[in-house]
Amino acid sequence: MASVPSLASTVQQRLADALSAALPEAGSADPLLRRSDRADFQANGILALAKKLKGNPRELAAQVVGALPADDGVLKEVEVSGPGFLNITVGDGAIVETLAARAADDRLGVPSAEHPGTTVIDYAQPNVAKEMHVGHLRSAVIGDAMVRILEFAGEKVVRRHHIGDWGTQFGMLIQYLIEHPHELDHKADTGDAQTSGEEAMSNLNRLYKASRALFDSDEEFKARSRDRVVLLQSGDPETLRLWQRFVDESKIYFYSVFDKLDMEIRDPDVVGESGYNDMLDETCRLLEESGVAVRSEGALCVFFDDVKGPDGQPVPLIVRKSNGGYGYAATDLSAIRDRVQKLGATTLLYVVDARQSLHFKMVFETARRAGWLGDDVKAVQLAFGTVLGKDGKPFKTREGETVRLVDLLDEAVERASSVVREKAESLPEADRLTEEEIAERGTQVGIGAIKYADLSTSAVRDYKFDLDQMVSLNGDTSVYLQYAYARIRSIVRKSGDAKPAAHAELGLAPAERALGLHLDQFGEVIAEVAASYEPHKLAAYLYQLSSLFTTFYAECPVLKADTPEQVENRLFLCDLTARTLSKGMALLGIRTPERL
Ligand code: ARG
């Protein structure tokens, strides 16, 4: 587990040292190093510095170059260009050596945080007795990727699935179940998770609709349902037992969906709204005693100067309603206390729909005022946008209903399977896949396509759910990345006796340099994504990696290279590319089959 500094960071450091040696009056100025098309890197920092020091940028740049250490193979060429940029070319040998150090490490040289914090991440939080929709898909997919990335970066991660398992609707549901006791029974225990999941949901759905219809049409049932809410809140054992049945049934369904999504959700991490019931009274008392919350029209409220409705009146966060009932906010405030005080969170991360941003803004601010969120704790909403249909409107079925998540996943797998089949049929006999392999790959490609489409655009943006595009072999899709990976693996398989081996003494072709320098950036991308919560940057990195590999493969023969050393060195680049791709995809929660 040796972390490997990237060439970019080595070059950056040397420039920074030369800068402060040549221009001590500049203090610790940033050389502003970027990858560049002209050379390997370009540093633009001297321009701004020259302005500040009122000097001639080209002259200052020359002074900095003069202060650089003698060439040891890393800085092969540094030249002043244009108004005062530095164009920097690193040595071929340095690239190969750095990559060899990465290849020798299980973590590809990516450092693990020395002083990790504890992030409590709130994601994959569907609602009991309700169908999951595409919004829940986004939270699950983005949250799962963030968990993997943060853990890989060394952070301690605690997962919380804040499912909607409490509220007045349970009065109606439980009352209906009491009056129709067999509505949740399963017809047959098939032992198959998918089937029981579907059956659980269809029972719950039917029960939800029927009880809602009765509630709306039958005043007496409505009254009985309200009494039932009171029994539920007072902890009546029989009522709680029936409530638990709804939760358990829903979990069967949730787990079947998460399973389909190839995602591990662990039971102890499912701490729904009801998990904080015991804290609600105290949360309200503390808020009221400290004056953070005040009574307004019978409700307990927190006010904000900058939150006003369209009529200009302040819109408060309601912690307790005038009828004494607690809502979503009281639960979230209690959850913050629990996560900071009991779980020791230094960061609270919420992967939740952007439409709940005002709620979180008010909840975080309230918790800060109450002292539950100190300066040492960060609270962030990783807000995501809406999933749109091909027509650019919120995603609905032709009949205007919300699209069932399971149907979407099934369709993606079906489409992906035909893509895999078609492609497999064009392969020589020996490389053909069996039907079983096609089914397995179809699942990995289809689920990967859905995840990748979600993860490859910036989370806050809305995106169009377009299956044709998602399973396309060309363009920025997971399938393209998966094929790139499988192709590399097949090259390595066909290499016979030649083994991947780094040869730092060989010169590199331009496409090899470009690929190599990109491979070297993996750790920096991980660090950036872990700090900014932007998994789309990892997706973009991987897509570019595949494109650079494609160019490399077109320009540089691997198994037919000129010398045995060159074959080995190119195999080495292939192998490191494959490992980086597969690690990166795994961090996004996407599989990379060995053969496609
Ligand atoms: N169950 C909610 C929904 O479906 C999401 C919960 C988000 N998490 C939270 N701590 N409020 O919209």
TrEMBL record:
<dbReference type="Pfam" id="PF00750">
    <property type="entry name" value="tRNA-synt_1d"/>
</dbReference>
<dbReference type="InterPro" id="IPR036695">
    <property type="entry name" value="Arg-tRNA-synth_N_sf"/>
</dbReference>
<dbReference type="Pfam" id="PF03485">
    <property type="entry name" value="Arg_tRNA_synt_N"/>
</dbReference>
<protein>
    <recommendedName>
        <fullName>Arginine--tRNA ligase</fullName>
        <ecNumber>6.1.1.19</ecNumber>
    </recommendedName>
</protein>
<keyword id="KW-0547">Nucleotide-binding</keyword>
<keyword id="KW-0963">Cytoplasm</keyword>
<keyword id="KW-0436">Ligase</keyword>
<dbReference type="GO" id="GO:0005737">
    <property type="term" value="C:cytoplasm"/>
</dbReference>
<comment type="subunit">
    <text>Monomer.</text>
</comment>
<dbReference type="InterPro" id="IPR008909">
    <property type="entry name" value="DALR_anticod-bd"/>
</dbReference>
<comment type="similarity">
    <text>Belongs to the class-I aminoacyl-tRNA synthetase family.</text>
</comment>
<keyword id="KW-0030">Aminoacyl-tRNA synthetase</keyword>
<dbReference type="GO" id="GO:0006420">
    <property type="term" value="P:arginyl-tRNA aminoacylation"/>
</dbReference>
<dbReference type="InterPro" id="IPR005148">
    <property type="entry name" value="Arg-tRNA-synth_N"/>
</dbReference>
<feature type="short sequence motif" description="'HIGH' region">
    <location>
        <begin position="126"/>
        <end position="136"/>
    </location>
</feature>
<dbReference type="InterPro" id="IPR001412">
    <property type="entry name" value="aa-tRNA-synth_I_CS"/>
</dbReference>
<keyword id="KW-0648">Protein biosynthesis</keyword>
<keyword id="KW-0067">ATP-binding</keyword>
<dbReference type="InterPro" id="IPR001278">
    <property type="entry name" value="Arg-tRNA-ligase"/>
</dbReference>
<dbReference type="Pfam" id="PF05746">
    <property type="entry name" value="DALR_1"/>
</dbReference>
<feature type="domain" description="Arginyl tRNA synthetase N-terminal">
    <location>
        <begin position="9"/>
        <end position="90"/>
    </location>
</feature>
<dbReference type="GO" id="GO:0004814">
    <property type="term" value="F:arginine-tRNA ligase activity"/>
</dbReference>
<feature type="domain" description="DALR anticodon binding">
    <location>
        <begin position="481"/>
        <end position="596"/>
    </location>
</feature>
<dbReference type="InterPro" id="IPR009080">
    <property type="entry name" value="tRNAsynth_Ia_anticodon-bd"/>
</dbReference>
<dbReference type="InterPro" id="IPR014729">
    <property type="entry name" value="Rossmann-like_a/b/a_fold"/>
</dbReference>
<dbReference type="GO" id="GO:0005524">
    <property type="term" value="F:ATP binding"/>
</dbReference>
<dbReference type="InterPro" id="IPR035684">
    <property type="entry name" value="ArgRS_core"/>
</dbReference>
